[in-house]
Design a protein that fits this description.
Layout: H1 17-31, E1 34-35, H2 36-43, H3 47-59, E2 63-69, E3 72-77, H4 79-91, E4 100-101, H5 102-111, H6 121-127, H7 135-147, E5 151-154, H8 161-167, E6 177-180, E7 182-185, E8 188-191, E9 213-216, E10 220-223, E11 235-236, E12 243-244, H9 247-250, E13 254-258, H10 268-274, H11 276-281, E14 283-287, E15 293-297, E16 300-306, H12 310-313, H13 316-321, E17 324-327, H14 333-346, H15 353-366, H16 375-390, H17 398-408
Parallel strand pairs: 4-7, 5-16, 5-17, 8-12, 10-13, 13-16
Antiparallel strand pairs: 1-3, 2-3, 6-9, 7-8, 11-12, 14-15
């Protein structure tokens, strides 16, 4: 992936000089004595830019030189510098990498969009190779990713909707993107990079690139029952006094899964109304504390996964905006056997087709339950736990699966 050339002059950053000087002074105050090379590493900018900032701070008598190491200045704040830094920290405690401007962020997100991915049948087969899926399901999923539009996965619980949604990420995990540490708007810092979400790309970052950006795998973000409407807007931290990007911005250029849709702390209609414009026009509007509205890209492959009836969650007009709706249903005997065989292989448990057929009979006939994709894994785990408890070698036996069913299913 082509990198971005590292800026060599302060003007090339397209960020207010005053903001950079403030970040530098706060960093020097927090870190203590630091070389200009060390300061450049903290701010993720070139030494030439830091030298420019240093000269201004020195002229204003906010920093002073304590010595030279390998021809590079070592600096500390003066008494006035420490006082100024404390004032600045009371307004914002941000001392991380220099931010990028909003225009650069918007341009970069659009350049690495998730909506123009090249996906074919072989790629889909490879991505879902560990799952037992029918050809029709694979083709539906592949077509949905090519469309770049939202996907609605619905069906009974335990049929693997979340597993399918998460596996979609494999289709573009090897396609890296650039993620900024932070964005600045009207002098306000908004952090975007999140190490819990943005993982380093498999390929090395090219030399000579702008270090304010991280080369990452495309993100995969899952939001479940904890999701609130407030999480969809900028989050202002009253302690650090800077903003954190909302979940959909952190997921830009990647996958956003709304798991167990309909069971969030935000009402379904409220969430859907919030995203009518983003899903339709691929842009979103965020609000700063002063009321300023920001237009940012909504470049996300959104997957809604639910075991509730979609018709009860959204009106017809909204469902039309989600053009791909895939029902993930219960499975047949052949799939049940194949899933169980793979689960057994994974845990090194000998597979016995006759015992698995007996298990399927218990579930379908005695318990009158449909065969679900989650049952093989869960029953096999029950068998393994029982063997470990009794100090026995795990084995797939009729007695073992019968006991597992008694423990797993609710008694009628």
């Amino acid at each position: 992936m082509d990198g971005m050339q590292i800026p060599t002059k302060l003007e090339e950053l397209d960020v207010p000089r005053k903001l950079l000087e403030d970040v530098a002074l706060k960093t020097i105050h927090v870190v203590g004595e630091v070389s200009l090379i060390g300061l450049a590493q903290h701010m993720r900018v070139g030494v030439g830019i830091v030298e420019d900032i240093f000269q201004r701070l020195r002229k204003e008598q906010l920093v002073q030189v304590t010595g030279m190491v390998a021809g590079v200045h070592q600096v500390v704040p003066t008494a006035d510098g420490r006082a100024r830094a404390m004032d600045l920290l009371s307004l914002s405690q941000y001392t991380g990498p220099a931010p990028v401007c909003l225009a650069d962020y918007v341009e970069r997100v659009r350049a690495q969009t998730v909506r123009r991915l090249e996906v074919d049948r072989s790629a889909v087969e490879s991505a879902f190779a560990d799952l037992v899926l029918e050809r029709q399901m694979l083709d539906q999923l592949g077509t949905a990713v090519v469309s770049g539009n939202a996907i609605f996965l619905h069906g009974p619980s335990g049929t693997g909707k979340t597993t399918l949604a998460e596996a979609l990420w494999r289709l573009f995990r090897s396609d890296p993107i650039w993620v900024p540490h932070a964005v600045v708007v009207d002098g306000q810092i908004i952090t975007v990079y999140d190490p819990a979400i943005h993982h380093a790309a498999e390929e090395a970052t090219p030399d000579g690139t702008d270090r304010r950006w991280m080369l990452c795998q495309r993100p995969r973000v899952t939001a479940g029952g904890e999701l609130t409407i407030e999480m969809l807007d900028l989050q202002f931290n009253p302690l650090s006094k800077y903003y954190v990007a909302p979940v959909q911005v952190k997921a830009n250029n990647g996958l956003l899964i709304i798991d167990d849709f309909g069971r969030q702390r935000v009402r379904p209609e409220e969430l859907l109304n919030r995203w009518v414009v983003p899903l339709d026009r691929h842009i979103d509007f965020l609000t700063l504390a002063g009321g300023r509205k920001l237009e940012v890209p909504f470049d996300v492959l959104v997957v809604f996964a639910t075991n509730l009836d979609p018709a009860t969650l959204a009106d017809e007009a909204f469902l039309r905006r989600i053009q791909t709706k895939i029902k993930v249903d219960n499975i047949g005997r052949e799939q049940f056997h194949e899933i169980t065989r793979r689960v057994c292989e994974k845990v090194a448990l000998p597979y016995d087709a006759a015992v698995v057929e007996h298990l399927a009979d218990i579930i379908a006939t005695e318990l009158r339950q449909p065969l679900r994709a989650c049952y093989p894994r869960d029953i096999v785990h029950q068998v393994m736990w029982g063997a470990r408890y009794h100090g026995q070698e795990p084995a797939l036996t009729r007695e073992g699966v019968e006991q597992a069913c008694r423990s797993y299913f609710l008694a009628s």
